[in-house]
Amino acid sequence: MDIEQKQAEIIDQLVKRASTCKPEALGPLIIEATSHPSLFAFSEILALPTVAQLQGTTDSVYLDVLRLFAHGTWGDYKCNASRIPQLSPDQILKLKQLTVLTLAESNKVLPYDTLMVELDVTNVRQLEDFLINECMYAGIVRGKLDQLKRCFEVPFAAGRDLRPGQLGNMLDTLSNWLNTSENLLISIQDKIKWADSMSEMDKKHRKEAEEGVEEVKKSLSMKVSGTYDALGGLRASLFPTNYFM
Amino acid sequence: MAPSSSSGLTFKLHPLVMLNISDHFTRVKTQLSPPAASCATGNGSSNADATFLQNPRVYGCVIGLQRGRTVEIFNSFELLLDPTTDTLDRSFLEKKQELYKKVFPDFYVLGWYSTGSDATESDMHIHKALMDINESPVYVLLNPAINHAQKDLPVTIYESEFHVIDGVPQSIFVHTSYTIETVEAERISVDHVAHLKPSDGGSAATQLAAHLTGIHSAIKMLNSRIRVLYQYIVAMQKGDIPCDNALFRQVSSLLRSLPAAESEKFHENFLMEYNDKLLMSYLAMITNCTSNMNEVVDKFNTAYDKHSRRGGGRNVFM
Hints:
The complex is a heterodimer. Chain A is mainly alpha-helical. Chain A is built from 11 helices and 3 strands; from the N terminus they run αααααααβααββαα. Chain A is elongated and about 115 Å long. Chain B is 50% helix and 20% strand. Chain B has helices spanning 15-38, 45-54, 90-103, 121-129, 184-194, 204-238, 245-256, 264-308, and strands at residues 10-13, 59-67, 70-79, 81-82, 87-88, 108-115, 138-142, 155-165, 168-176, 178-180. The longest helix of chain B is centred in the last third of the chain and has 45 residues, at 264-308. At the A-B interface, α1, β3, α10 and α11 of A face α6, α7 and α8 of B.
């Protein structure tokens, strides 16, 4: 998908720089990564051993910032504002975008009220502007804004970095999907067989009726001189059963 | 004879070209088929004739646009191969080219096509002959053999390049990759062709079966792709393959869009449509029954008419 392609180059560059530069320079690098307008994926940087070493040093706040951006939301930041250094406006914007992505994970229809609370936005106009300019034009979500019902329908949202437990869930969902489609295949095949067998039965029934008529016609043609009585009676007894098909 | 091309051109093929080529081949083959059937049991040299007639090679020209590094093949027309000189009929080609220029002034002759399973040496001569119209013509090859196991299209596009083989620079054919590009109108007609039902498929059961079979194969393809994804991610989880975070992100965004059609409104609409359809078929059956009943009554009347009153008035049943 396009977001991944756009991010792939940036991720590669940053990973290269992070693995070659000194630990002290990692802090500013992380700040730069989290402010970059098109970068929404941080697990590659998180996975680097040099970055993991920041834990426990004076720069571990940078690691926390990176973790916040990889898995957390704006709400998390507000709760932990004391531990994490002040974020620049770029970073704040990015964190809000990532918050929208997280919300889209659980529901496909996001009410405006929830969004306003989560993103600290007070009026609908600002919320819609934010959604349109920052999220949809950036390409991380695709959806429809429903002003009458005050909700935002999201059929597609880009993925965030995976938390360690989420992989299991993903596998479960995938296997459910597989099972459903396999069951569907089996039921379609059954339907096809049913349609064929019903048409076979229908043909057989028709053939039997035709054969019955033929037999009667033959036996009647023997008695050419037979009375109208016999003819009328026999025909009347046959036709009602043969024409209700 | 088929390393990959390095010219850096991107090729776009329109489905119209493939339909034209296969149509040309089918026409020629069916026109030749009566004699082929009779000499199919031949031996020796007549066997070679039989195989030739089973799969006659057809030739033609492809035209299209070249914009920068993108070559887009739009259309094609047939040409005759002159068996004596082994070259394509030049005067006809030029006449057709002029006619096409009037309708499509932007299109150039981009190359030529033929059918067969592989490019041969003699094709190189034809290729070189075309080089005076277009410095680097393309050669589109369609393989008419039906192979059910093959998933891709049996069309290969070759370009000619100069390679040094055994110290002698020769031009040989090299594969190029191509993509299929459609215009809206083409997509509709290709869809139509793909859904051709048998012409006497009047019975409802065969049409239903054909429709269901289409859906079945579509879901089967989806199923196999999901299975590949699933096994890949399981392998990543076990650690057999290094984790690819970008892939995880894409799969998670994909799974988030499931279930795609699970909401109150969808259920309502679906059940309403289902009920409407059932009602309609019920109505149709009832109408059918009443018309049959009407016929029975008429026949009964006629039958008992003759029986009760000879030459008299009508004895009405109802």
